[in-house]
Design brief:
The chain is of the alpha+beta class. It is built from 7 helices and 4 strands, in the order ααααβααβββα. The chain binds FE2/S2 (inorganic) cluster.
């Protein structure tokens, strides 16, 4: 299958070539390759999956099966920060619905959507095992607990600010 590479993605595919070359020597490194590919592209669109399949001489169905199976992989563009709102029982009882409403209002997005500035993606999750801190949200790997809706604007602002500062440093 012919894969058309967009001009502005060429450098990204060159980086991906290096990742494939690094890991391809060892069997079972598909997940590492997919993780790094997601770091490069931000997500794993169909053309990137096809490219990896071709380079590794694997059926596309194998690649897509792994990408679909693991929740850490995304086939859609995601924000820089992924917010997971826990909708497990303990969090729900402690008001996760109000937290969710506050996030939706602050970012003007619904569950499954990404903010216009590509900063935040909102997801609903099951219990993450931090019920003692209910209600809980995760933002990438950070856990924020014992929240009230009034906490949401300042928490989101911290991430936006941090992102701007990192952007300035780069
Ligand atoms: S129910 Fe939310 S962390 Fe357990």
């Amino acid at each position: 299958m012919e894969i058309l590479i967009r001009e502005n993605d060429k450098q990204k595919f060159q980086k991906l070539d290096k990742v494939i070359a690094r890991y391809n020597v060892e069997a079972g490194m598909l997940i590492r390759i997919l993780q790094e590919a997601q770091n490069i592209f931000g997500y794993l669109p169909a053309d990137v999956q096809s490219y990896i399949a071709k380079e590794l001489k694997l059926p596309i169905s194998t690649i897509n099966g792994v990408v679909s199976f693991y929740s850490l992989f995304s086939q859609e563009p995601r924000g820089k920060y992924v917010i997971g709102i826990c909708m497990g029982t303990a969090c729900y009882v402690k008001g996760s619905q109000e937290i969710l409403n506050a996030i939706k209002e602050e970012l003007a997005i619904d569950v499954g959507e990404t903010s216009v500035d590509k900063m935040f993606t909102l997801k609903a999750t099951r219990c993450i095992g931090a019920c003692g801190l209910a209600p809980v949200i995760t933002i990438n790997e950070n856990v924020h607990g014992r929240l009230s809706p009034a906490d949401i604007p300042s928490i989101l602002y911290q991430y936006t600010k941090e992102s701007r500062q990192t952007g300035l440093r780069n």
